[in-house]
């Protein structure tokens, strides 16, 4: 046995050290995206209880329901955890889907009257039409739930479905 066959104690100590966290902003965006996708899937799987939290602007002051019961709240909590400054305006994207192009365009006209920038295009999957609306605003819980209710009603009138909203964290 030679000296090169023996593992130096410093090598063992190096292997036992926990990995150091990185400050990769792209990694944070990926985590926020994954969290939003998981929250959305939980919502879509029918875990909605129907409870509505009281309107408020501070995320930490909201009631703490099961995360799957309130997608708007869950997205805001995830943004806050990712370091977003929720007092600053964010470019927020909203997604509505329709089976007919004419329905998507009519909904887009009505949404545009409310100050949103809107675009209609084929959805990435399937044969549906996407009505993509965007607006820069401060992401307040009460504002986003009001928009959700409005878009759910508008989508229902035109035979479509409101999907959700998303944004990148603004620091």
Describe this protein's structure.
The protein has 5 helices and 4 strands; from the N terminus they run H-H-H-E-H-E-E-H-E. The protein is an alpha+beta fold and 171 residues long. The chain has a 4-stranded antiparallel sheet with strand order 2-3-1-4. The N and C termini lie far apart (58 Å).
Summarize the structure.
The chain has helices at residues 9-16, 25-44, 71-81, 101-112, 141-157; strands at 90-98, 117-122, 129-137, 160-166. With 171 residues, it is of the alpha+beta class. Strands 2-3-1-4 form a 4-stranded antiparallel sheet.
Order of SSEs: HHHEHEEHE
Poorly predicted sequence stretches spanning 5 or more consecutive residues: 2-19, 41-57
The chain-level mean pLDDT equals 76
Distance between the termini: 58 Å
CA-atom Rg in angstroms: 22 Å
The computed structural class is alpha+beta
Largest sheet: 4 strands, antiparallel
Which percent range describes the beta-strand content?
Answer: 15-25%
Coarse shape: elongated
Strand order, largest beta sheet: 2-3-1-4
What fraction, in percent, of the residue positions are helical? 25-40%
Number of helices: 5
The count of DSSP E runs of length 2 or more, i.e. the number of strands, is 4
